[in-house]
Amino acid sequence: MAQVVYSIFSGKVLDLHLPDPFNEVISGVNWGFFDELFTPAYWAVQIWLDSESQRYSMYSLGGTLEEEVYQHKEYKDAIFS
Known about the structure:
By secondary structure, the chain is of the alpha+beta class.
């Protein structure tokens, strides 16, 4: 079942359609639920909600989601090993 998120941008109600939470976004990583912290769906919604202000657009570890996941894993492994 696909997920739909609604928000108001410039006085208009817009919707964002996301894949089923159990679909893989990249190999081994599910989309997850948009209202569950730190899932890819959660971050996709955060980016969408920030698209007008672009307050957080400069923060990233990579240029693609795959790079973000890989860089995050490397960073986490370095800290916690």
